[in-house]
């Protein structure tokens, strides 16, 4: 039987499966499931897993539509029945394929999210359920800080998690706020790189700078005073200046003037914050009300990069003018290949 860990986001469902595979020397492939997966694409994955004997971890499995899940159940059952009967082959999508008995299938689920299907009973019976609870963030934070080279990791981890739990409770509820494990992990990586770039600075100052400078951009105006107050309470009498690149700020000012804009300090700061975020994030949302200069921020950065001869490139897409499939890609019905 495969395992079916279920629990809220950031509880380590996928990581636990990967760690189990690592511990017993199994190759684990992770597949992100979506509504576009049909029984053929699932069947092709099962064929590959059966022939290699590797494990497959199907992330967010209950995003697949119910009609597809009931067919998937028969495919999984075919593999499991063949293993029980100690056969060397099994039948998938009408083809007889070789079967290596070490094959394992794991599914992870986020119960109760919008757009998630309830698993059919015949599928539930094929996987061993496993409930996951929210882990001890403080311990995870402490271990990560030690890995990043911090000496006083225990005290700093306590301060870090206290700040994030207070932010969750005291700040307004915004769609783009995230105080979960993934946000903690990415900020710890930033703190580690700051520490390595400035080895002589005390550790509490390094962490305070990371927490302040990489959270401030996403905090809405009415929450800023609360957030800065929390930072001040947790790191009393610490006033660490921002890490500034004055030459770059000068270039941004010139770029703003080239675009016939007023190079106000707040606007220049937003452009600099965008650069800082792009260094640690794969994608960045620029959020704000109409007329707050969202487009001008990235256009100014584009102009600054052009002035610096860095050859930047942008592509303007109007999401209302293209379909979801054009925007995100789709599995072609004829070739079963991904098209984008």
Automatic annotation (TrEMBL):
<dbReference type="InterPro" id="IPR027417">
    <property type="entry name" value="P-loop_NTPase"/>
</dbReference>
<feature type="domain" description="Dynein heavy chain hydrolytic ATP-binding dynein motor region">
    <location>
        <begin position="1"/>
        <end position="295"/>
    </location>
</feature>
<dbReference type="GO" id="GO:0007018">
    <property type="term" value="P:microtubule-based movement"/>
</dbReference>
<dbReference type="InterPro" id="IPR026983">
    <property type="entry name" value="DHC"/>
</dbReference>
<keyword id="KW-0378">Hydrolase</keyword>
<dbReference type="InterPro" id="IPR035699">
    <property type="entry name" value="AAA_6"/>
</dbReference>
<dbReference type="GO" id="GO:0045505">
    <property type="term" value="F:dynein intermediate chain binding"/>
</dbReference>
<dbReference type="InterPro" id="IPR043157">
    <property type="entry name" value="Dynein_AAA1S"/>
</dbReference>
<dbReference type="GO" id="GO:0051959">
    <property type="term" value="F:dynein light intermediate chain binding"/>
</dbReference>
<dbReference type="Pfam" id="PF12774">
    <property type="entry name" value="AAA_6"/>
</dbReference>
<dbReference type="GO" id="GO:0016787">
    <property type="term" value="F:hydrolase activity"/>
</dbReference>
<comment type="similarity">
    <text>Belongs to the dynein heavy chain family.</text>
</comment>
<dbReference type="GO" id="GO:0030286">
    <property type="term" value="C:dynein complex"/>
</dbReference>
<protein>
    <submittedName>
        <fullName>P-loop containing nucleoside triphosphate hydrolase</fullName>
    </submittedName>
</protein>
<dbReference type="GO" id="GO:0005524">
    <property type="term" value="F:ATP binding"/>
</dbReference>
